[in-house]
Amino acid sequence: MQAHDQMYIDGAWRPAVGRDTIAVVNPADEQVIAHVPAGTAEDVDAAVRAARAAFPAWAATPPAERAARLTALADALAARKDVLAETITAELGSPLPLSQMVHAGVPVLVAASYAELAGRHAFEERIGNSTVLLEPVGVVGAITPWNYPLHQIVAKVAPALAAGCTVVLKPAEDTPLTAQLFAEATEAAGLPPGVFNLVTGLGAVAGQALAAHEDVDLVSFTGSTAVGRQIGATAGAAVKRVALELGGKSANVILPGADLAKAVNVGIANVMTNSGQTCSAWTRMLVDAERYDEAVELAANAVTKYVAGERVGPLVNAKQQARVRGYIEKGVEEGARLISGGPDAPLETGFYVSPTVFADVTPDMTIAQEEIFGPVVSILRYEDVDDALRIANGTVYGLAGAVWAADDEEAVAFARRMDTGQVDINGGRFNPLAPFGGYKQSGVGRELGPHGLAEYLQTKSLQF
Ligand code: NAP
Ligand code: MG
User: Fold this and answer.
1) Where is the active site (predicted)?
2) Beta strands in 362-423 (DSSP E)
């Protein structure tokens, strides 16, 4: 795999201050495919200084010109679609068709959506005798995870640039090659030097330095609740803006009148995609007592289509594989009924986990409460609609979910009572403009579309 042994700072690839490197591993065959520099606080500082220096001119650039650069960025990503997909497959392990369609495909749409929004957003409004200016927040520190490596970068960088902010990105240590390709795309798009900067490195070193840097105005983080809590506390102490997109334990609620087969099949597919490494995955399937056995049988059947090493890739690394297998063991210990899969590794090489379905899961079990981040579905039984709502809302998370009912009206009535940031109604389609983010401990702030743009703006009111 092609890799830069440098950081992208102030419009050029530059040597890192230190000599440490990170080995990038292909999780499907466990081979080292590249090395990238492990940045330190000094590299982060150089990148933040470049972003600060570039900020006044970028903030003053007319929105139409920022829009033109974002269109060029979307085009540059589209032109690199094949190499992006191959790289994501190599460092994340996702099957190539998924990398092509979702991992490489969706970010082009998102970048293009921000080109469009930058061009037509009202960065000024009138309220009575006041003119309210919507101004860029400043220098953004973006810290991203590995599970949708390009999407999560674009979902932060594109709105930040549209708003007039400049950015320093610290991508996940497991997927830095995708981030380097993204940096190349920003260069090809003709962004002025310093507007986008990349520092690869470890979370505890480079990530920590970026989150704590006093000249960063906003930290946007996606990842685990444990790290998010720490970043929120650091930002709070410094009185700076923070956006946190954390975990989830979303419910797939199948109401009595729903098309059961469709709801179960789509629900299983939703979790198995990306080996279950999706923060918004509907990992809890809720079915009424009357149709419970039928749903379990449908699920057992549906999961046979998902084979590790074929449609289901490995997990990203050995640690995540061990973690997920540990949760499956815990489910068995706590008395859930394994109807498919289990804790044993399905292949000798690669960080694979068997696609797993548990029945007879009760709401208090660990596997019904904690984010597993692997190809594991729990099927829970409810007695009536209020019971279903109690179970659906009965975790610390609130990121996403699904409701299936006899008609949209009934599904919407249920969705209105859910404590969650996004709900798919009777199999609704993905919308790259819909705000995405969490209620409760799933996070703070929203990404995508106009709501995602608003995160990077601050308001100033002028009275006349
Ligand atoms: P993580 O540690 O929270 O990683 C997310 C990002 O934060 C990475 O870039 C990481 O760098 C960085 N980071 C780590 N420690 C940091 C610190 N002290 N200060 C600043 N940045 C820091 O997540 P993970 O360890 O990769 O995954 C663990 C669990 O998190 C998963 O099992 C899953 O439950 C959850 N998760 C959720 C999402 C989501 O989309 N909400 C995504 C990924 C993971 P490194 O890459 O060097 O660690
Ligand atoms: Mg980590």
Assistant:
1) 245
2) 376-382, 401-404
Residue from 91, 173, 184, 245 carrying the catalytic annotation: 245
Domain span at residue 322? Answer: 251-431
Give 169-213 pLDDT, tens digit per residue: 999 999 999 999 999 999 999 999 999 999 999 999 999 999 999
Model pTM score: 0.98
Give the Å distance between the CA of 404 and the centre of ligand 1. 32
Ligand 1, atom 40: closest residue by C-alpha: 279
Q: Is position 447 annotated as part of the catalytic site? A: no
Q: Which residue's CA is the closest to the ligand 1 atom numbered 26? A: 145
Segments of the chain scoring below 50 in pLDDT: none
* Cα–Cα distance measured from residue 150 to residue 207, given in angstroms and rounded to the nearest whole number: 18
Q: Judging by beta carbons within 10 Å of its beta carbon (0-12, 13-18, 19+), is residue 33 exposed, middle or buried?
A: middle
Any ligand 1 atom below 6 A from CB of 232: no
Residues 350 and 327 in one domain: yes
Dump pLDDT digits (tens) for 231-282. 999 999 999 999 999 999 999 999 999 999 999 999 999 999 999 999 999 9
> What is the residue type of 405?
A
Ligand number with the minimum distance to the CA of 223: 1
Query: In what helix (H) or strand (E) does residue 19 lie, and over which residues does it extend?
Result: none
Q: Does the beta carbon of 145 sit less than 6 angstroms from any atom of ligand 1?
A: yes
Q: For position 1, what pLDDT does the model report?
A: 86
169 and 57 in a common domain: yes
Question: How many domains in the chain?
Answer: 2
Instruction: Tell me the ligand closest to 208's alpha carbon.
Output: 1
